[in-house]
Design a protein that fits this description.
The protein has helices spanning 2-20, 66-82, 105-114, 128-133, 173-182; strands spanning 36-39, 44-46, 55-61, 89-93, 121-123, 137-138, 140-147, 150-157, 197-198. The protein is an alpha+beta fold and 203 residues long. The strands form two sheets. The chain has a seven-stranded mixed sheet, with helices on one face.
Length: 203
């Protein structure tokens, strides 16, 4: 039964991807694509598990990209600050682990343990979810807000304006977006260009 449900979900997501175009992805105002993916603790995490919360900070990242590594502490800090406000972090690794063994599930487990990740770190082995959302780099953030019809995308792009130096950040894109959402406002800057390594796509 679980396998059948997974296949049906994968089929539905594939239709959504095809309907939008393989690289079109989601933009602010679109309904978020549901997912059920394996966490580093061995459990399966679903977006629907968060349906009673205000939203989710969805971060596409990986184990080995220098940009992802540079942002890990900032992602941990985002979860620490906003989880209690109803906007927890969910991280997803969609990079090809066959051609790039450092992106394997076992290495994800080690990375999450070494860094004491305080959020789920999920494996998107099929890469269906990354393609459905239109994630292109690591890290790439999608801010989701819960609504009557599910989760809606309110922002996508970079975490902030300085990938090199956390202390030199001037604009905190994700935090600004969350503040506006919590105030019931439209996000004034719903899109920025994600800066990082390209997701390692399967050939």
């Amino acid at each position: 039964m679980k396998k059948l449900i997974f296949l049906l979900l994968s089929f539905a997501i594939s239709l959504a991807v095809n309907a939008q175009g393989a690289t079109a992805g989601l933009k602010a105002g679109d309904t978020a694509i549901p997912f059920k993916l394996k966490n580093v603790d061995g459990n399966v995490v679903s977006l629907n598990d968060y349906a009673n919360l205000r939203g989710v900070i969805l971060v596409f990242t990986c184990n080995n990209c220098p940009f992802s590594l540079a942002y890990e502490d900032r992602i941990i800090a985002l979860n620490k600050k906003y989880d209690i406000m109803g906007f927890p972090v969910i991280a997803i690794n969609s990079s090809d682990s066959v051609a790039y063994p450092d992106e394997s599930y076992s290495k994800m487990v080690i990375r999450a343990s070494d860094k004491n990740f305080n959020f789920p770190y999920l494996l998107d082995d099929s890469q269906i979810i990354a393609k459905a959302y239109g994630a292109v780099r690591t890290p790439h953030v999608f801010l989701l807000q819960h609504s009557d019809i599910g989760f809606a995308v309110r922002y996508d792009g970079a975490i902030d304006d300085n990938s090199d130096d956390a202390d030199a950040v001037k604009i905190k894109y994700v935090e600004n977006a969350i503040t506006e959402v919590m105030r019931g406002k439209l996000v004034s800057q719903p899109f920025t260009k994600a800066i990082g390594c390209t997701i390692k796509w399967k050939k």
